[in-house]
Amino acid sequence: MLFVVVHLLYLCTIYTAKFASASPVFDQDLALQGKTTNASGGVSIKFFASLERLSRLVDITYCVGTTGIRQPFSCISRCKDFPSLELVTTWNTGVLLGDSCGYVAIDHGTSPITEPRSMPQDTEQSHGATDGAIIVAFRGTYSITNAVVDLSTVPQSYVPYPPSDGDDAYGLPSREPEHVCTNCTVHMGFLLSWQMARETVMPELRRLHEQYPEYRIHVVGHSLGGAVGALAALDMKVIHGWKDIIITTFGEPRIGNVGFVKYLDAAFDLNDEDKNPEQRVYRRVTHVDDPVPLLPLSEWGYRSHAGEFFISKPDLSPTPLHIRACLGDYDPDCIAGSDGEQTKSVNKLGIEAHPPNDRDALSNRIWRLPARFKLWELLFAHRDYFWRLGLCIPGGDPIDWWRDRHSLLGTNNEL
Question: Which numeric CATH code is attached to 23-400?
């Protein structure tokens, strides 16, 4: 394991020279430098509580493949926090590049669902009709070695819809896709993980969706699970045509190239800058010191997509004021600024080009080590999303045992 970590450190350092030179990502989005979504930062208490609850739901996935999750919804970790959930199935497909673990659960509406409907015209009607939800949760990588392997493979062409000459593997009739992915490639390991899980996950979801068509589908994932969840949600939306899907990821790595990013942004309507960010149906949560959202490297052709919510506080626990709704695929006030691009921003625009309230924070940030070089944070910041994720033991990670619960939460049952 030590050899693998040292090797990845070497791979990162060989690109240090590029860090000091012009970046195609930076050059492409230089016009965004003067834009921010909320200069003071912060999200609503209601939205913060929703993200916190989803972080606990994804933490439960780390019980799959270890001590397990049992019906109705029982485990030695945080399952007791969700008494209204019913377990449908779990899966564990293997190790390394084929590794995918997770669970499907259902909530029949014993508590209000606070998330917006993906179709605005359906909001009032459907929200009053049912508060049920289907939860699909994907586990992250379980070790540093696994994480390194997951981030080391080559891109693969991505074709997200059935062939035009017949039925696809789901048994669905072919149809014209709403969105077309042009010149798209994705990480081979992420795609393989979803292909392995799809044989178990999609039949259950089709059955549940047919039985409860009015229930919203929540897709949630951490780390590798975030990337797999993204591919899963695209299949649901593009191949199946399901509209009422909300996806939330924590520490999601870069999945594919520029073509794939444009495709995903369009599929989930992430380019609408006039929309309230809390109404997004795709929420990509990142952390200031987490290296994984900056991997695989942009020098290898990978890019980040839009929908980001950025936790600016390095240590636990964040508050609603520490969550920033970010703008576009590349927002220098969010995780992109932790990649070292902020230094070039100051050199090109000058610190005076930024709002006065941001200048002190900017001055401090440009002297910080870029997050993608902080590989030791795979053990810490990469797991620090509202709680320290990744251990299936009573009460979660021991670091949380002496911490107060987030005092701003409404109820445990709100998504």
Answer: 3.40.50.1820
